[in-house]
Amino acid sequence: MDPSHTPKKPHIALIPSAGMGHLTPFLRIASLLLSRNCIITLFTPKSTISNAESDHISFFLTKYPQVKHLEFDIIPVQASGNQDPFFVQYKAISRSSHLLRPLLSSSPYPFSAIFCDLLTARSIAAISADLSIPYYVLISTSAKFLSFMLYLPFLVSNPDKFSINSTEVQIPGLTPLPMKSIPLPFVNPNHLLASSIIENVGSIPEAKGILVNSFKQFEAETFSALNNCKVLNNLPQVLPIGPLQAYDIENDESQCLSWLDNQPEKSVVYVNFGSRTAMSNDQIKELGHGLDRSGCRFLWVVKTSTVDKEDKEGLEELLGNSFLERVKSKAMVVKSWVNQEKILEHSATGGFISHCGWNSVTEAAARGMPVLAWPIHGDQRVNAEVLQEAGLGILEKTWGMGNERLVKQEEIAKRVSEFMNDVELRNRAMKVGEEARKAIEHGGSSDKAIMEIIEKLS
């Protein structure tokens, strides 16, 4: 073969935003691209908000020493004391991403593409044009919530149809979204998060593609609307490439897996509200008593603060020794980071009570694990509606959003018991799992999508 026609290894820059919800899909796609003979450089800010982020980056780099890691400074954002620290970090990274230009331009091995987070799209689009490096946007939420974000500039410019008094949100080509599913920050265009989204989505048409950690069958209506110019008529191709599979991570939670090994098949309900979702102490206590009264075995990961560095309260102090002693024969309660993927695929796990962060939804979908959705904030209510429509789980709408109301233990106990004994739901979830596996196997829709990108870049 003529050496000039030998395909080169694509060199891809990965630029995630803040928080585990944004970091995780980037590390997973890095692992996938490495397995497809790509070269990866990971760019991260010099300081992270959570310990989980820094721990996972460190472990990932240890596992994949061939990945080059470059850190960049971020310009602080002036924020009031009550603003979500992750929102502040989103804005800071977005405002600082122009500092990536010298790092990208000075690489001894030229970049074939940049994969960036939506929240850095504006700056990366300018760098992409300046350096003639194509860029793709990797989305860390559902295709449905992506559609809402893309359409947000049009919505906020029409307050007569988009306000807290609206009953639903109309997005062209999609079933209307209930207004109560929309996070309140997005109704205010001056909010730190909403303004970040609005200023970045305008650059999306300049991208070569939009990558979504989902699969066609899971959000068929939405992918059809996006790719048939119904939502917006100037979008690049929207490519479902999921569910992205986890890379092997440290098994710090072997105690949880050992405990599951001793439980009957499908008998345990796994309860985890994610890396940055905190309930009130009163709600945590009601949830604990509700799980106990349900009669089900449970594995519960407790979180009391938005930022893990501030999560100092012990289980005994929070739940009481009498509760922990009473449930120890049928439950495990922890506050540490756990290997959620291994827990979800364990034969003893029969159901998942989740906040419906998108990484958790796709992990459950990949394993056909039924989900009882209890969204707390952000995109989670929309994500919960997506999984319910797909047949993966159920959304208990009467529980509200976040700490909207105190859900009592009696309600929780009854619902959890019904959920764990719902054979029809389990069968529907298994079908979703089969569709997910077909999408990512060789020749599946998601596998083809990622291979087409790699071939273009080669």
From TrEMBL:
InterPro entries: UDP-glycosyltransf_plant, UDP_glucos_trans, UDP_glycos_trans_CS. It is an enzyme of class 2 (transferase). Keywords: Glycosyltransferase, Transferase. Its EC number is 2.4.1.-. It holds the Pfam family UDPGT. It catalyses: an anthocyanidin + UDP-alpha-D-glucose + H(+) = an anthocyanidin 3-O-beta-D-glucoside + UDP. Pathway: Pigment biosynthesis; anthocyanin biosynthesis. GO terms for molecular function: anthocyanidin 3-O-glucosyltransferase activity. GO terms for biological process: anthocyanin-containing compound biosynthetic process. Belongs to the UDP-glycosyltransferase family. This is Glycosyltransferase.
